[in-house]
Amino acid sequence: MLSHQTLKIVADSVNPTLGLLALALPFATWRGQWRSPAKHIAVTLLTVALTYLLRAAFGFEAVWAHWGMDFSTHGAICIVLSVALASLCWRRSWIWGAVFVGYDFLMVYQAYHTWVDIGTTAAVILPFALLLRYWGDRWVAGSLGTRAPSSS
Q1: What is the distance between the alpha carbons of residues 70 and 118, in angstroms, rounded to a whole number?
Q2: What is the pTM of this model?
Q3: Would you tell me how many other CB atoms lie within 10 Å of the CB of residue 108?
Q4: pLDDT digits over 122-134, tens only?
């Protein structure tokens, strides 16, 4: 079995790895183009920024603490990045869902969060991330008459 410290390194690398993939894969998906990937990345960055803004503006930590829970910012960012990556090819979205669930198991095993923390965070952030991604995909698809890659 891997040590607690090794698993901590793995857990700490999940979101940065997803972030790098969210920056690189749009260019691989839209070969030879730059506007569509740039817009896709802009929507992803906007969603990440708005997630942090929501957390701060609504005091999610205080709200969750009031109920004896902990808002999972790591889980929230993982959701936002997973949705961004899934939107590149919705048929393969199960991959990013599996990464998120695996990360959840790791966070619970490492005692960073409980399942309730993660579930309540996801209940708030997932609809928000999906709505922004839906809007963003329409914006990207509308640019220069290109088609969003969500159907491949």
Answers
A1: 8
A2: 0.88
A3: 14
A4: 999 999 999 999 9
